[in-house]
Automatic annotation (TrEMBL), chain A:
<feature type="transmembrane region" description="Helical">
    <location>
        <begin position="7"/>
        <end position="32"/>
    </location>
</feature>
<keyword id="KW-0520">NAD</keyword>
<feature type="transmembrane region" description="Helical">
    <location>
        <begin position="82"/>
        <end position="101"/>
    </location>
</feature>
<feature type="transmembrane region" description="Helical">
    <location>
        <begin position="455"/>
        <end position="478"/>
    </location>
</feature>
<feature type="transmembrane region" description="Helical">
    <location>
        <begin position="173"/>
        <end position="190"/>
    </location>
</feature>
<dbReference type="Pfam" id="PF06455">
    <property type="entry name" value="NADH5_C"/>
</dbReference>
<dbReference type="InterPro" id="IPR003945">
    <property type="entry name" value="NU5C-like"/>
</dbReference>
<dbReference type="InterPro" id="IPR010934">
    <property type="entry name" value="NADH_DH_su5_C"/>
</dbReference>
<feature type="transmembrane region" description="Helical">
    <location>
        <begin position="147"/>
        <end position="167"/>
    </location>
</feature>
From TrEMBL, chain B:
<dbReference type="InterPro" id="IPR050175">
    <property type="entry name" value="Complex_I_Subunit_2"/>
</dbReference>
<feature type="transmembrane region" description="Helical">
    <location>
        <begin position="149"/>
        <end position="167"/>
    </location>
</feature>
<dbReference type="GO" id="GO:0006120">
    <property type="term" value="P:mitochondrial electron transport, NADH to ubiquinone"/>
</dbReference>
<protein>
    <recommendedName>
        <fullName>NADH-ubiquinone oxidoreductase chain 2</fullName>
        <ecNumber>7.1.1.2</ecNumber>
    </recommendedName>
</protein>
<feature type="transmembrane region" description="Helical">
    <location>
        <begin position="270"/>
        <end position="293"/>
    </location>
</feature>
<dbReference type="GO" id="GO:0008137">
    <property type="term" value="F:NADH dehydrogenase (ubiquinone) activity"/>
</dbReference>
<keyword id="KW-1133">Transmembrane helix</keyword>
<keyword id="KW-0813">Transport</keyword>
<feature type="transmembrane region" description="Helical">
    <location>
        <begin position="174"/>
        <end position="192"/>
    </location>
</feature>
Length: 572, 336
């Protein structure tokens, strides 16, 4: 099953690539429409929009999913129900493709809901309590977005059809479009885990690593960004876009800080994903949808690669994800550490890897156009924080001394996993330049003073030095986290926002429902229905039997008595 | 009656049928009374069996109650003829005539003999008692009834039929109380129209027949006997379906007459009476389900050393289950 789906998705990727090149070179865009049923004045139509953006995104999604399925052949080879896992992944890819190609809100809803449900199934795949809780958090946070899209469908019915693409030019200043823009921004924020809804993304790391590589790095979380890119014409001068800017740069900043305090390997990568998502959302809300799309695609490449390397390392460390138990791995697993290094450096924006093209372009656009000081500071600070946690991760995992665990298995020759990582390595090296040559038909005009241009490098160097210094831990080092305990706990627990989604919502209601259950369900309603009525009926029946089991003559005599009474009434 | 062979029974059975027909189709009240007496006289030899002390006592009790009721009936007829020349429905005479007929039927509040006697009869005699013996008193009731008195009697029937059966373990007494409850429905139906009563009565007697024949074949008289023998699946299914049908649950046959009677209740604006019909029906279903619930669960009570095999008469059981389930749907084909 793994091989079949891998080949199918790989050839699907090649077909998409071919059509993408053809469409973008000739400026084509195709709109299919299939009328399923038409009755009097109502018609149900299925439409598919293929332009270069959807073909390119489909190509990337199918590439990553084919590689991930091939990788999971070896990663999950001890799984009994591997077919079930592969089928879930394939259904996920199908929902994502449906979301990408649809110009129509109903099929977007189908893809969106499918994504939410299947990601729930995949997060709870290992059936323990932590996965169940994580899955519940994921599913319910995504559900808010689903509700928003349902309400948008309801509001868009004002215009007569659900093909939103046609209405942007004509209806921009309508009150209805104002409401729709508000709701679509909230829907995208739940899916892409921006600030009020950001607690599910680190929690969803309870999923198996191939799932994290596919879902939580490149496809599910970018669905929100993709939706906003499609709706960009509508949103571009709305008020809520500025709110989105504010929240997304805060997300970027917060997750960058929290990643520095984390010690779980997958959570660091998850928070890194969250930070890059904030970056994508913020550059989108500044008005540059194509740069956001570009960063989405390059980020997908190296983040998926990073997750897969993390999966290899977790397998080698006997399923331990804590980086304090790892160290010095660069000496022992050269090929995996090659992939890990290249993806990490691409994440930081080291020149001429793929991440550089998108990140540097973003930062230069932020510097070139005049935005306010907070935007500027937080962008550069978050870039520095990215380098900070990346270098900290590299120091802990690969450079410091080997923390000898009792059981380890440094096996680097698993060529199934390595070959899949090499495909993504190749793409992660080259996709930056390749995409920039395709997507941008003319370069952006940027004219910056010297120090502002080098600001990126200054911040990166500062971040790397800090990352190196923080990870110099020895046996006699003082635990500085305890010195600033309040501030540290605030910063490392994602500014206490997960409590909004978990304790804050459930504690009051669970308390109240316990009171209700004890007093009413197991209390008064047993007396007034249920047991109480049964007791009453039983007592009546016992009482009746006293009259039933009686002397026979009394029955006959009572009959005569009745007649005598009636006679007396008759004759008076 | 010294020997107990079938030719005796056939003879008295024939006279029993004939007596009811006399009673129904007579021109005067006197003829009705004659029919009732012949009914009594021909039923007694059917149920008495001189070798069994219990059945002798039962037939004696039956004779006493029925003859008392018949005497009263005759007396009321004579008073009506002699004292009241006019045909006045809402009168005490009608109450007294109705009371004696109700005692003949075994309806509340004159029903106290009924569970006792039912306890002493065999299943087939019970079947006769519960179905055929109700025909002539019912129809005579429809000739001269007092509406308010009968509605009060209906309510008493329903309540006693439901509450009395809660504390029983003998299957015969259970069916007796269920019969008292169904008498309530039937008295109401005869107040509406005789056709409606016929409909209810036919379906009720068919259901009772299926149930009693099942108990007769398995030779079961008490509730604990249900669990002692190993019934195979179809017998349990049949038991389940028939009991639920008797209780009036929708897809089965027994729902239809109750539904139609509720329809007439609501048309005639008997709202509170409808409520009492519903609630007592619920209690009755409770004790039916109490009998059969262990038979349709996956983990049912089973004895290891008794193996009951039904080799013949399976066709009867399958046919009765089929009729109970499909009657509602098939009846729509009849009237198309």
């Amino acid at each position: 099953m793994c091989f079949n789906s891998f080949f199918f998705l790989f050839f699907f990727m090649l077909i998409n690539f071919f059509f993408f090149v053809y469409f973008i070179m000739n400026g084509l865009s195709v709109f299919f429409e299939w009328e399923i049923i038409s009755f009097n004045s109502m018609s149900i139509v299925m439409s598919i929009l293929l332009d270069w953006m959807s073909l390119l995104f489909m190509m990337f999604v199918s590439l990553i999913s084919s590689v991930v399925i091939f990788y999971s052949k070896s990663y999950m080879n001890s799984e009994l129900n591997l077919n079930r896992f592969i089928i879930l992944v394939l259904m996920f890819v199908f929902s994502m493709v449906l979301l990408i190609i649809s110009p129509n809100l109903i099929s977007i809803l189908l893809g969106w809901d499918g994504l939410g449900l299947i990601s729930y199934c995949l997060v709870i795949y290992y059936q323990n309590l932590k996965s169940y809780n994580a899955g519940m958090l994921t599913a319910l946070s995504n559900r808010i977005g689903d509700v928003m899209i349902l309400m948008i469908i309801c509001w868009v019915m004002n215009y007569g059809s659900w093909n939103y693409i046609f209405y942007f030019d004509f209806m921009k200043n309508d009150y209805v479009m104002f409401i729709i823009s508000f709701m679509i921004i909230i829907a995208a924020m739940t899916k892409s885990a921006q600030i009020p809804f950001s607690s599910w993304l680190p929690a969803a790391m309870a999923a198996p690593t191939p799932v994290s590589a596919l879902v939580h790095s490149s496809t599910l979380v970018t669905a929100g960004v993709y939706l906003l890119i499609r709706f960009n014409y509508l949103l571009i001068d709305m008020f809520f876009f500025k709110v989105l800017l504010f929240l997304s740069i805060l997300t970027m900043f917060m997750s960058g800080i929290s990643a520095n305090y984390e010690f779980d390997l997958k959570k660091i990568i998850a928070l890194s994903t969250l930070s890059q998502l904030g970056l994508m959302m913020s550059i989108l809300s500044l008005g540059f949808p194509d740069i956001a799309f570009f960063h989405l695609l390059t980020h997908a490449m190296f983040k998926a690669l990073l997750f897969m390397c993390a999966g290899v390392i977790i397998h080698m460390m006997n399923d331990i994800q804590d980086i304090r138990y790892m160290g010095g791995l660069s000496l022992y697993i050269p090929l995996t550490s090659l992939c890990l290094n290249i993806s990490n450096l691409s994440l930081c924006g080291i020149p001429f890897l793929s991440g550089f093209y998108s990140k540097d372009l973003i930062l230069e656009m932020v510097s070139f156009n005049s935005f306010n000081l907070m935007v500027f500071i937080l962008f550069y600070l978050s870039t520095g924080l990215t380098v900070f946690y990346t270098f900290r991760l590299i120091m802990y995992v690969m450079i410091n001394d080997f923390n000898l665990m009792m059981i380890y298995n440094l096996y680097d020759e698993d060529y199934i996993m390595l070959n899949s990582m090499f495909v993504l390595l190749f793409m992660s090296l080259l996709s930056g330049s390749f995409l920039s040559w395709f997507i941008f038909s003319y370069p952006y005009m940027i004219y910056l003073p010297f120090n502002l241009k080098l600001m990126v490098i200054y911040v990166s160097i500062l971040g790397s030095i800090l990352g190196f210094m923080v990870s110099n831990m020895g046996i006699y080092s003082l635990n500085k986290l305890l010195l600033s305990y309040n501030l540290s706990s605030f910063l490392c627990l994602m500014w206490f926002m997960p409590n909004l989604s978990t304790y804050g919502l459930s504690y009051i209601y669970l308390n109240f429902s316990q009171i209700l259950f004890k007093n009413i369900d197991m209390g008064w309603s047993e007396i007034y229905s249920g047991k109480g009525i049964f007791n009453i009926l039983k007592n009546y029946s016992v009482f009746y039997n006293i009259y039933q089991m009686n002397n026979f003559k009394i029955y006959l005599f009572s009959f005569i008595l009745w007649f005598m009474i009636l006679f007396i009434f008759f004759f008076i | 009656m010294l020997t107990n062979n079938n030719s005796n029974k056939m003879f008295f059975l024939f006279i029993l049928f004939f007596s009811t027909l006399i009673s129904i189709s007579s021109n005067s009240w006197f003829g009705c009374w004659i029919g009732l007496e012949i009914n009594l006289l021909s039923f007694i030899p059917l149920i008495s069996n001189s070798k069994n002390l219990l059945s002798v006592e039962t037939s004696l009790k039956y004779f006493l109650t029925q003859s008392l009721a018949s005497i009263n009936f005759l007396f009321m007829i004579l008073i009506k003829f002699s004292l009241l020349k006019n045909f006045d429905m809402n009168n005490i005479i009608s109450i007294m005539m109705n009371s004696s007929l109700l005692m003949k039927m075994g309806s509340a509040p004159f029903h106290f003999w009924f569970p006792n006697i039912v306890e002493g009869l065999s299943w087939m005699n019970n079947f006769m008692l519960m179905t055929w013996q109700k025909i002539s008193p019912m129809i005579l009731l429809s000739y001269y009834f007092n509406k308010n008195f009968l509605i009060f009697m209906i309510i008493m029937n329903l309540i006693i039929g439901s509450l009395g059966g809660l504390n029983q373990t003998s299957l015969r007494k259970l069916l007796a109380f269920s019969s008292i409850n169904n008498l309530g429905w039937m008295i109401f139906s005869i107040m509406i129209s005789e056709n409606l009563w016929l409909f209810y009565f036919l379906i009720y007697s068919m259901m009772i027949f299926m149930m009693i024949s099942l108990f007769f074949l398995m030779n079961m008289y008490f509730m604990n006997q249900l669990f002692i023998n190993n019934m195979n699946f179809f017998i349990k299914l049949n038991l389940l379906i028939n009991f639920l049908s008797l209780g009036g649950l929708p897809p089965f046959m027994g729902f239809m007459p109750k539904w139609i009677i509720i329809n007439f209740l609501l048309i005639n604006k008997f709202y509170f009476l409808t409520f009492i019909f519903m609630m007592t029906s619920l209690i009755i279903i409770y004790y039916y389900i109490r009998i059969i619930y262990s038979s349709f669960m996956f983990n049912y009570f089973k004895m290891k050393w008794v193996n009951l095999l039904m080799k013949n008469n399976m066709s009867l059981i399958n046919l009765s289950s089929f009729i109970s389930i499909s009657s509602m749907i098939l009846s729509t084909f009849i009237f198309m």
